[in-house]
């Protein structure tokens, strides 16, 4: 007994039956081959589409990274400019504070001197008959 593709075939099979069985098996194999070729073609087309999509997405990612880097550089420059302006304003505030403190000292001194002069004037008027 001979076993072919899960079929048990007697050793003494008539030729025409054997030919018919082999033709049927061959036909089935050809159909499977054609189905496999069609599936392979479909998969190759799908692969090409995926490659194109991958390439497109990589280009888009690259452009996006470039744009983001460019925007980041611009923001960093703007931040540095704002830091510089803030430092200038802080320095201006220190200078105003110092000038205000000096003027306040001068005004206090002027007030004290003026008060002393007024007191002296009052005292000298009182002393004069």
Short account of what is shown:
By secondary structure, the protein is mainly alpha-helical. 88% of the residues lie in helices and 5% in strands. A two-stranded antiparallel ribbon has the order 1-2.
Can you walk me through this structure?
The protein is mainly alpha-helical and about 130 residues long. It has one domain. It is about 90% helix and about 5% strand. Strands 1-2 form a two-stranded antiparallel ribbon. The model has no long low-confidence stretch (mean pLDDT about 90).
Tell me the strand percentage band. Answer: under 5%
Give the count of structural domains: 1
Poorly predicted sequence stretches spanning 5 or more consecutive residues: none
Q: Could you state the order of secondary-structure elements as H and E?
A: EEH
Cα separation of the termini? 161 Å
Order of neighbouring strands in the sheet with most strands: 1-2
Which structural class best describes the helix and strand composition? mainly alpha
In round numbers, the mean pLDDT is 89
Helix content: over 70%
Radius of gyration, in Å, reads 51 Å
Shape: rod-shaped
Quick one: biggest sheet? 2 strands, antiparallel
Tally of helical segments? 1
